[in-house]
Design brief:
single chain; about 290 residues; alpha+beta; Aminopeptidase; 2 domains; three-stranded antiparallel sheet; elongated
């Protein structure tokens, strides 16, 4: 036998299932990719017709969770998950329970885990190919963020659910400590010159929005906000992208004034072609 099976997603799923089963030992039939229990094969064929599935121990699962948390941009869930990993008791159960409270981040975990385990399986598969004198094959990676964001809907606001959006607007200003006198200077979010794009979760809940005022061919973005529980998923980028595609033909210039405690947004807008226009400086003089 000189060949080896053609790998597919179905075979990958079978191998992942076998890797995570800590009670039984499994091997892969190199002729067709079928996964079988090791106790059912002739041990003399191991390494010839069959190969052990990639090794996967509880510590490997723990390290994968650590890697996921370290790359999670949502500060709320990152801290909760880090605390769960640090407890040392029923870590896997605690980790899963926390994820269940946020379906978007839970989906991000499943996609991340599948992608990382697929890398391990492809490395194993290429080792088997080399042993058979075959060339390695490359892994085409999927964009984790795109898969997660496919669950959300981005569209112009149709002025329904006004109270829900107004509450998000208030939360956004409170977060930047500008609610009150600063907020009173602005028009209401449902005014005729307002332009709003919202991000909707699968449940229909508004989880983020971008809002601008248009006057005389000039647009001023007044607010960009994503609920804390949904940050780190790329929703802000999708809001901006959808918003610009929808409304850019109405104006010749677009401006945004970024508060001092949200300067990280500058980089986000730079990625869409915005450039530094002006700076505000402040001196707090002690009484």
């Amino acid at each position: 036998m000189t060949g080896i099976f053609d790998i597919s997603q179905e075979i990958i799923d079978q191998i992942i299932f076998a890797m995570e089963d800590q009670e039984k030992d499994f091997v892969v039939d190199l002729s067709n990719g079928n996964v079988v229990e090791k106790r059912f094969i002739d041990s003399g064929l191991l390494g010839k017709k069959y190969a052990d599935v990639p090794r996967w121990r509880p510590i490997d699962g723990f390290r994968l969770m650590e890697k996921f948390v370290s790359n999670l941009n949502n500060p709320i869930y990152r801290e909760e998950l880090m605390n769960a990993l640090a407890t040392g008791k029923k870590v896997f159960r605690k980790f899963k329970n926390i994820l269940k409270t946020n379906p978007a981040i839970e989906r991000k975990w499943f996609v991340f885990k599948a992608r990382e385990m697929k890398k391990i399986i492809f490395a194993w598969y290429n080792t088997q190919r080399e042993l058979k004198g075959l060339e390695k094959i490359s892994l085409e990676e999927e964009d984790t963020e795109d898969l997660v964001l496919s669950d959300f809907l981005f569209k112009p606001w149709d002025k329904s659910n006004y109270e829900e959006l107004a509450e998000l607007d208030r939360s956004a200003f409170l977060e930047t400590h500008l609610y009150g006198s600063e907020r009173e200077k602005l028009l209401t979010i449902d005014s005729d010159v307002s332009r709003v794009t919202v991000a909707l979760a699968p449940t229909g809940e508004i989880v983020g929005f971008i809002w601008a005022i248009v006057r005389d061919g000039v647009m001023i973005i007044e607010q960009l906000y994503v609920k804390p529980d949904f940050r780190g998923l790329g929703i802000a980028n999708c809001l901006i992208d959808n918003f610009l595609v929808t409304f850019k033909d109405e104006v010749s210039e677009i401006y945004i004034d970024i508060p001092g405690n949200r300067l990280e947004l500058a980089k986000v807008f730079e990625n869409f072609g915005f450039s530094l226009y002006s700076q505000k400086m402040r001196l707090q003089v002690e009484s």
